[in-house]
Each structure stands twice: as C-alpha cells, then as structure tokens.
Amino acid sequence: MGMVYADVELINGLDEGNAKRHMIGEDEVRKFPVNILVDSGSYMLAINEHIQEYLQLPVVDSKRAQTADNRVIDCDVVAPIVLLFENRRFTGSAMVLPGDSEPLLGTIPLEEMDVLIHPLRQELIVNPEHPLYAQLKLK
C-alpha cells in the first residue's frame, strides 16, 4: 500500500474554548488546514514547528520518540489541539517535530475518530459501519 494523505483542519483548542465562552470572536480562533500523512505505524498526532508557531499551542510535556530512520529525538508535546476530518473530531495532544517535518496522523487519533484507511482507494475514510458518529471500543 502506498502513502495515504488526508485533508484535515487543526485548531487551537484553547482558542475554541475561549470563543465558546465569548472571550474572543470565532474569527480569532487559530486554525490550520493541512494535508497530513496518515501513518498507521505512528501512535500520536505529530505536527511540526511551523504549525506549532502558527497555532501557538502551549507546551505541556516533553517525550522521546523514535523516527522512521531509527533516530531518537526529544519532542515537545502541546495541547489542547483539535483535529477535524469530515464529520469526525479528535481533541488531545500532539508531538512537535523539528522544523518543517511532515505532520503525521497516528493510530490513537485514528481510533478515536473511528476512521479507516481504505486500501484500494488509498485514502482515509469514515468507518462505513458508523457513518454518522464515531464509535469507540471499550473492551
């Protein structure tokens, strides 16, 4: 299977909350559209420093990560970040990759959004068994 990309929107979760509380206007919520690599070999959502700088997400942690070329790097973790894909939503944290590294959509947000990689069409799709809402497994 080739590489799969998806058009998503990344949102500063703090801005979104402040807009809901009418502390800022909807037009002040920082949003970033991105064509992201869907990476079933990665666990987390990963953004790059350029996206982090634009969204101005606060650093909440630091973690070590192993890259595809087996390097181990230290990454800031930022939160809250919101990711929108079609009628699905993920709210959580993201690792910040150095420079303009390619953003990655890992298995944790994929599972939470109940989306699948369609192998023949090589695209990300909403789970056809649950087209209207995400359904999570608790067992």
Helix content: 10-25%
The SSE order reads EHEEHEEEEHEE
Low-pLDDT segments, ≥5 res: none
Tell me the fraction of residues in β-strands, as a range.
over 45%
Structural class: alpha+beta
Q: Return Rg in Å.
A: 15 Å
| CATH fold assignment | Cathepsin D, subunit A, domain 1
- Beta strand count: 9
Strand order of the largest sheet: 1-2-7-3-6-5
Kindly report the name of the CATH homologous superfamily.
Answer: Acid Proteases
State the separation between the terminal residues, measured CA to CA: 29 Å
CATH architecture: Beta Barrel
Number of domains: 1
| Average pLDDT taken over every residue | 96
User: What's the number of helices?
Assistant: 3
Based on CA inertia axes, which overall geometry fits?
globular
Largest sheet: 6 strands, mixed, barrel
Assembly level: single chain
The first-level CATH class is given as Mainly Beta
Q: Can you give a write-up of this model?
A:
With 139 residues, this protein is of the alpha+beta class. The protein has a single domain, classed as Cathepsin D, subunit A, domain 1 (Beta Barrel), CATH 2.40.70. The protein has 3 helices and 9 strands. A hairpin with a 2-residue loop joins strand 5 (72-85) and strand 6. The two termini are 29 Å apart.
Identify the notable features of this structure and list them briefly.
139 residues, 9 strands, 3 helices, 16% helix, alpha+beta, 6-stranded mixed β-barrel
Compose a concise summary of this entry.
By secondary structure, this protein is of the alpha+beta class. It has helices at 13-20, 49-55, 107-113; strands at residues 4-12, 31-38, 45-48, 59-66, 72-85, 88-97, 104-105, 115-118, 123-126. It has 3 helices and 9 strands, in the order E-H-E-E-H-E-E-E-E-H-E-E.
